[in-house]
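=== RUN LOG ===
request id: a7f3
mode: sequence -> structure
chains: 1
length: 165
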Amino acid sequence: MRFTPLESKIIDIARPVATDMALELVHVKIVGEGGSQNVQVMAEDPATGRLGVDDCAKLSRALSAVFDVEDPINGAYRLEVSSPGIDRPLTRLSDFEKYKDFDVKLEISMPNENGQKKFRGIVTGIKDGIITIDTDQGEAEVEFDSLTKAKLVLTDDLIKKTANL
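=== RESULT ===
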């Protein structure tokens, strides 16, 4: 999964903070420019795949303290800490393994040989960093390292299947 250099820097700072709280960092995204930047951090309890309001607040306070010391962002920003939600982003290969047979939307940085950058389909396999999905146009293979965006699609089937995850 590709991240901007600033997002990668935030990930490097935030991951140990989340780990110390027995949480897993799921995603970091920076939205906006200059003084109106939002730093979005998604984390989860690895046992439940969720993050409650109290844990969001605790992680937010811990990250704020570390960001105040490390000062990774020039200028003002807003920190948003949340659970990844049901139609979560898929940012790790393990996410694709966990959500095999689910409907996903993927976007890659450069068009493939057919000129396609966006894909939607069912994850059918993961091998050697290649994600295979079954799309309306047939099978597609997407290299994990070329992904710029990946998420589950909110469907009735997803709601039913994840109720017990």
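=== NOTES ===
The CA atoms of residues 41 and 55 lie 13 Å apart.
The domain at 5-82 is CATH 3.30.70.1350 (Alpha-Beta Plaits).
=== END ===
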